[in-house]
Amino acid sequence: QSVLTQPPSASGTPGQRVTISCSGSSSNIGSDIVNWYQQLPGRAPKLLIYSNNQRPSGVPDRFSGSKSGTSASLAISGLQSEDEAVYYCAAWYDSLNDYVFGTGTTVTVL
Amino acid sequence: QVQLVQSGAEVKKPGASVKVSCKASGYNFNRYGISWVRQAPGQGLEWMGWINAYNDNTNYALKLQGRLTVTTDTSTSTVFMELRSLRHDDTAVYYCARDFRELELQRPGYWGQGTLVTVSS
User: Fold this and answer.
1) pLDDT category of residue A1 using cuts at 50, 70 and 90
2) Partner residue opposite A101 with nearest CB, options B45, B106, B111
3) Torsion angle of alpha carbons A88, A69, B51, B44, nearest 10°?
4) Cβ separation of B44 and A35 shorter than 8 Å?
5) By the CB < 8 Å criterion, does A33 face chain B?
6) What span, in angstroms and rounded, lies between the C-alpha atoms of B94 and B37?
7) Do B104 and A100 touch (CB under 8 A)?
8) How far apart are CA B18 and CA B8, in angstroms?
9) Which residue of B has its CA nearest to A87?
10) Secondary structure (3-state) at B29
11) How far apart are CA A51 and CA B26, in angstroms?
12) How confident is the model at residue A3 (pLDDT cuts 50, 70, 90)?
C-alpha cells in the first residue's frame, strides 16, 4: 500500500491537456525531489521527469512536472495516442528510509 | 548508451531462493548505484533495495530485510539480487535500475528489461 496517492485514472481526447496529481506528506514529497515514470503496456518503466520538473534528454516538452508543499503534479499537454500508459510519481520517504512509488494513474486517450 | 541487461525468467517453489543478474554497460559502473524494483501481476511498483557500486553499501526495504541480498561483481559490471524463502506473493517482474544522477542516490533512472519470477508449487 503506497503512501503517495494518485487518482486511478485520467483521460482526454487527442490534443487535450491532462493533469495527474500525487499527494504525499512532509516525510516524502515535502522533503525530497519528485520523479515521474511512464510505463507503457508490457514495458519497463521509463523516467519521464526528475528533480520535480526536469525532463531527461529525449522526453518531449509536452510533459511537465511541478511540486508544491507535499503534493506534485504531472501535466501532459497536446495528448497523443502513444501517451496511453500508467504514470507513477516517486520520492524518498525519510521515515521508512525507502523510495516510495505512487499508486499509479492509467491515462486513456479517448 | 546506458544498458542494463537482466537474466531470464525463473520458476521457483515456495521456500526456495532466486538470484537474478543485471549486467551494466555504457557507463562507469562504479559511479552509480543500482536499485531493484518489483511489480506483482497487475500491481504497482515496489522498491526493494539498493547497492552503491563504489563501496558495496546497501539499503533494503524494511519488509524484505533478512530475505534480500544485493551484491556486485565489478569485474563483469554485474549486480545480483538474491531473494530467499520465496512465497507465492513474491511472484513478480523484477527490475534493476541505475541511479539517474550521480549525486541523487537511490533514485532510479535507467531500467533493465525486467525478469519474471514465478513462485509456484
Assistant:
1) low
2) B45
3) -20
4) no
5) yes
6) 6
7) no
8) 11
9) B44
10) helix
11) 23
12) confident
